[in-house]
Amino acid sequence: MGYVSQAQFEEDQRRPMPAPVEGVSLEGEVVIVTGANTGIGYEAAKHFAIRGPKKLIMMARNEARGRPAVEKLKQETGFQNVELWLMDFSSFESVKATKEKIDQLERLDILVENAALTLEDYTVTKDGWENILQVNHLSFGLHAMYHIPKMLETAKKYGANPRIVLVSSDTHYWTRVPAEAIEAPNSLEFLNSKEYSTREGIMGGQRYMESKILATMLIRRFQAHLPPNSPTVTCCAVNPGFCLSELRRGVTGEAAEEYRKMEEELAFTAEEGSRQLLYAAIGQRDREEEVRGGYVSFMKVTECSDFILGEEGQKLENKLWTETMDVLGKVDERTKDIVKQYLS
Ligand SMILES: NC(=O)c1ccc[n+]([C@@H]2O[C@H](COP(=O)([O-])OP(=O)(O)OC[C@H]3O[C@@H](n4cnc5c(N)ncnc54)[C@H](OP(=O)(O)O)[C@@H]3O)[C@@H](O)[C@H]2O)c1
């Protein structure tokens, strides 16, 4: 099913969220969660902590946002082997600075790429990208790529099945990337242009949903470029569902009021949503192949949108791979080696 109607969405939101995956110990494993200081990411980090990994790395954009969350998690779970790593996804320099630390890890079993944002206004990062495009797509791609060598090494050395989980969204079902962007000489540049980004109705909802389409395409491409069989890395996207969190903190006016009503009626708690991240990261360990390149929703591997799977979406997905790798290659030469050695 590559489509979720509004009625289906509401029905899904009204049913109880299935219980968290049970019976999986993370003993000896290393787990990283981005955007772990609040919301769904924080709750996912707690689920990992109570399953006893060797090390849990919680990522946050700065000390002030991150440190209290680490202390709170230690207190709430009793789990102490937690590190705080700082990184701001709106700065390529900040993402680049994490590579050496990643390389020094002994192993890496689970990477949950959860950090993302939505904004109502058009803003440009110091790297020249519209903020949502950089945080939710490009920096996610750069950051995830850095882990691939370590995760492949973990797969080989420990016979493990490391997973990269991208936190996507069911909102990706409700829009498409416009044909003019797909047909443009460079789709990413088209989407990033001030002319397109400031058109009526793009910032806020549409841009956020587009960014989730792009990121979902990218995680699928990572899988397609990785070795098909173990030792390899499993890449998947997951939908946490509509949840209470800080995500809509910047929404104002009528839209804020609409969200408030919708939250009252339909939202899961952040903890309930985080169960889906947990499932995408450690569920179905006996059926790893089914998860590879998949889209997880309500604890099931299902289809992402018809747009992504259709002819136009696939055209864009292929184009996007080349364009994204081009951008990241300019940001950091080291990504070219990663593509050459591990993703060709
Ligand atoms: N809540 C929902 O209804 C819903 C539905 C579908 C999908 N999702 C997805 O679920 C994931 C978690 O979102 P959430 O709902 O838990 O929202 P949230 O409470 O706002 O958490 C988002 C996390 O991402 C971090 N983040 C944002 N921009 C960042 C940056 N530039 N650098 C580093 N970290 C950054 C935030 O850090 P700060 O705290 O410092 O801002 C926070 O830790 C996101 O990918 C979101 O798109 C959420």
UniProtKB/TrEMBL annotation:
It holds the Pfam family adh_short. The keyword Oxidoreductase applies. Keywords: Oxidoreductase. Residues 1-20 are annotated as: Disordered. One of its GO terms (molecular function) is oxidoreductase activity. PANTHER family: PHOSPHATIDYLINOSITOL-GLYCAN BIOSYNTHESIS CLASS F PROTEIN, PHOSPHATIDYLINOSITOL-GLYCAN BIOSYNTHESIS CLASS F PROTEIN-RELATED. This is NAD(P)-binding protein. It comes from Marasmius oreades.
